[in-house]
């Protein structure tokens, strides 16, 4: 493949899917700026391996795996502890059916451990099977199941007070 054809094909793919990569990145890290950085890192890595990636059956799965690996690499790096001292987020306006529930869920997701958050995002946002999530994360299906179960249990605990307060306010 000629370099200009390769670049045009990559540019077309990225133009169509960059928003999706950023949204998945946001669900992983909970910060739009970091999500943009993760998507950019994934795009650079994808470009480096575009000859291989363009031949796979599902390029989105390839890109998603790169994105998740970039997120997990960042969380394991000592550098991330020093570069992200400010935890405030700048929210983009988005259509929301229930803004309060959405904010509660985002806050609860942010409190999960990185691997638990990754399994929840892959399983329930990206709609991957246990086997597909295990392949993306490079672990066994048992690990995906246990991480997902722990994540859901933690989410139930984290979201329960908000639901209880909401119900208490309704009954008064």
What report would you give on this structure?
The chain is mainly α. It has two domains: about 1-95, Orthogonal Bundle (Rna Polymerase Sigma Factor, Chain: A); about 100-170, Orthogonal Bundle (Arc Repressor Mutant, subunit A), CATH 1.10.10. It is about 80% helix and about 0% strand. It is built from nine helices and no strands. The protein has helices at about 5-30, 30-50, 50-55, 60-75, 80-85, 100-110, 115-125, 130-135, 140-170. Helix 6 (about 100-110) packs across helix 9. The N and C termini lie far apart (about 70 Å). The model has no long low-confidence stretch (mean pLDDT about 85). One of its GO terms (biological process) is DNA-templated transcription initiation. Keywords: DNA-binding, Sigma factor, Transcription, Transcription regulation.
The tally of helices reads 9
Mean pLDDT: 83
Q: How far apart are the termini? A: 68 Å
DSSP strand tally: 0
Largest sheet: none
SSE-based structural type: mainly alpha
CATH architecture of the largest domain: Orthogonal Bundle
Can you lay out the helices and strands and say which pair or pack?
Blueprint (H helix, E strand, L loop, with lengths): L2 H27 L2 H17 L1 H4 L5 H18 L2 H5 L15 H13 L2 H12 L4 H8 L3 H31 L1
Helix pairs in contact: 1-2, 1-4, 1-7, 2-4, 6-9, 7-9, 8-9
Task: Offer a concise description of the structure.
One of its GO terms (molecular function) is sigma factor activity. By secondary structure, the chain is mainly α.
């Amino acid at each position: 493949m000629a370099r200009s054809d390769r670049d045009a094909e990559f540019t077309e793919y990225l133009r169509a899917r960059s928003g999706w990569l950023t949204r998945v990145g946001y669900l992983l890290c909970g910060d739009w700026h970091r999500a943009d950085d993760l998507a950019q890192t994934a795009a650079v890595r994808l470009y480096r391996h575009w000859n291989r990636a363009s031949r796979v059956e599902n390029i989105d799965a390839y890109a998603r795996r790169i994105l998740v690996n970039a997120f997990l690499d960042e969380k394991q790096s000592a550098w991330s502890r020093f570069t992200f001292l400010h935890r405030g987020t700048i929210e983009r306006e988005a259509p929301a059916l229930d803004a309060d529930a959405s904010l509660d869920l985002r806050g609860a997701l942010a409190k999960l451990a990185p691997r638990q958050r990754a399994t929840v995002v892959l399983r329930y946002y990206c709609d991957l099977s246990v086997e597909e999530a295990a392949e993306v994360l490079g672990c066994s299906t048992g690990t995906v199941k246990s991480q997902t179960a722990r994540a859901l249990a933690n989410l139930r605990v984290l979201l329960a007070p908000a639901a209880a307060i909401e119900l208490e306010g309704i009954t008064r």
